[in-house]
Amino acid sequence: MLSLEMRHLATMRRAARPTNVLTTEPKYRRIAEDLRAAINNRDYLHGDRLPGENDLMARYQVARMTARQALGVLLNEGIAVAHKGSGIFVRDFDPIIRESLTRLSHDRWARGASIWSADIADRELQVTTRVREDAVPGHVAPLLVLDVGDHVCVRERRFVLDSQPVMLSTSYLPADVVRGSAITQEDTGPGGTYARLAELGHEPTRFREDVRARMPQPHEIEALGLFAFGTPVIEIVRTAFTEAGNPIEVNEMTLDASAYVLRYDFEA
Amino acid sequence: MLSLEMRHLATMRRAARPTNVLTTEPKYRRIAEDLRAAINNRDYLHGDRLPGENDLMARYQVARMTARQALGVLLNEGIAVAHKGSGIFVRDFDPIIRESLTRLSHDRWARGASIWSADIADRELQVTTRVREDAVPGHVAPLLVLDVGDHVCVRERRFVLDSQPVMLSTSYLPADVVRGSAITQEDTGPGGTYARLAELGHEPTRFREDVRARMPQPHEIEALGLFAFGTPVIEIVRTAFTEAGNPIEVNEMTLDASAYVLRYDFEA
DNA sequence: GAGTGGTCTAGACCACATC
DNA sequence: ATGTGGTCTAGACCACTCG
Q1: What is the pLDDT averaged over residues A58-83?
Q2: CATH numbers and ranges of domains, chain B
């Protein structure tokens, strides 16, 4: 183990940065680099336990806080996850592929199939739904071309796959349009919201998805059961338009980025 | 300020968790919550300086490391950015919208326009390109239906917008196909790589984009000039197929998630 | 019970930015 | 010159997990 440290002391002086002749990386980062290199080198595989705080303190002769800082780097990078009382483990990435274009093809949802069926095959999906009517949020109003104070039907859903929450979804529809339809019920019936909209004469035919990634807020960490560090969320804002080009629904989705790959297929 | 702390001591005992009757949030998190709430409450606006370590130590009567930990939460959430020697500031989000579908429409790139022109209007874009030939990387080989050991033309590009690096792009093409064409040059000529592929009888007509988000690796932090904390990257793997359905190019893109929104428009 | 990560204290020195 | 964040030490107690 000492030889390990000697090697790193030898590589401590690195290529010069702007002003100084010698720039030394902070200790915690060099420790993190070692661990990262070892992981990339397959010394530790998915699920393997990494050296803990005490190991690193002994190996590198540093204080506990410095060892923690080094491990914190890997947690922040999402390369490792901490299990309290047990250790820090290498993380893997085995995502759900979300087929985005074909999912919304007319023949699929018009027949009554869930738009989710293509994505997750035969894995067990549980959905909890809450519906309410409320004033349109400020950031949604312009997307639906509504005025502040106008009311919307708000459908909040939480998707749990194999007992693992994977997505939060909040859908906004003009209250005047959907009032009295099954859209205001928890169960929207066969074909879901879009089939009901079609029956109401507002069939959605064009879609826009705006995708961004960011770090989660605490309530999202809790609702999605994310690890406290290193897991971004993907935010999708989908707007559905009628043939006439009028927006009829806005759906804000928040996805655990460690669980998803979004797939978009299209033609030139 | 004392009253502020008193309020929080009052709300310190929270809704019960699994076993314990009383669960107390760690100090650093309650401090972080205060700051987050203040930001959401518009007490601090984009670019405003937040209370620093010394402020928080005095306000909350905690040690420096605890105050640092609280600020670290906001940095990790990407809500704030640290400027050494100056302070910690509220961050904003003013993204480039990347129009993904129309960008690749045939008439656009066939006419010689850059696929980027639609995205960024008249802002100044600089591209640095490196081209080389190499053995196909293991993770790319199956996408291009190549065997290990087969060679590919590798085009590495770095896009800098208004002196801010925003995207890294690595494109792989079968070496046998593109050898001798302008694709192996830094400047691929009018219409770019796809126009040259068309001339070679391998016109791409179908595209697949797989999108994921993750935390950046150190070399990506450096290459993209990211803040060290709180900024995920978006990874796009685009595969281009010919009319016959054969993959002809794989392009791995890495985007600063704080700089981009991906927009996908499509029809039912 | 021994080991793990999670939180916290009370100091210290440094590089950097601003005035 | 002062204040800022960045790094680091050397302790401590806790809750949790596992054998």
Answers
A1: 92
A2: 2-90 (1.10.10.10), 96-263 (3.40.1410.10)
* E-only strand ranges, A38-77: none
Give the tokens for residue B151: 């060679």
- Measured between alpha carbons, how far is A255 from A165 in angstroms, rounded to an integer? 9
Lowest mean per-residue pLDDT among A19-33, B109-123, B187-201: B109-123
Q: Is B76 helix (H, G, I), strand (E, B) or coil?
A: helix
Instruction: Report the alpha-carbon distance of residue A28 to residue B17 in Å, rounded.
Output: 34
* Protein-to-nucleotide distance from the CA of A86 to the C1' of C3, whole angstroms: 8
pLDDT at B173 over 50: yes
Question: Nearest-CA residue of chain A relative to B229?
Answer: A76
Kind and range of the H or E run holding A82: strand A80-83
Hey, of A214, A227, A235, which one would you mutate to test binding to chain B, going by the most B CBs within 10 A of its CB?
Answer: A214
Rounded percentage of chain B residues whose pLDDT exceeds 70:
82
Q: What are phi and psi of A107, to 5 degrees?
A: -65, -25
Q: Give the one of B211, B230, B266 whose C-beta lies nearest to A266's C-beta.
A: B266
**Range 37-66 of B in CB contact (< 8 A) with A:** 65
Q: What share of chain B is helix, strand, coil (3-state, %, to 5)?
A: 30, 30, 35
pLDDT of B69 strictly over 70: yes
Kindly state whether A264 is in contact with chain B, defined as any CB-CB distance less than 8 angstroms. yes
User: Which nucleotides in chain D lie closer than 7 A to a protein CB?
Assistant: 3-12, 15-18
Residues in a beta bridge with B236: B211, B253
The Cα diameter of chain A in Å comes to 75
Kindly state the average pLDDT of the residues A52-56: 92
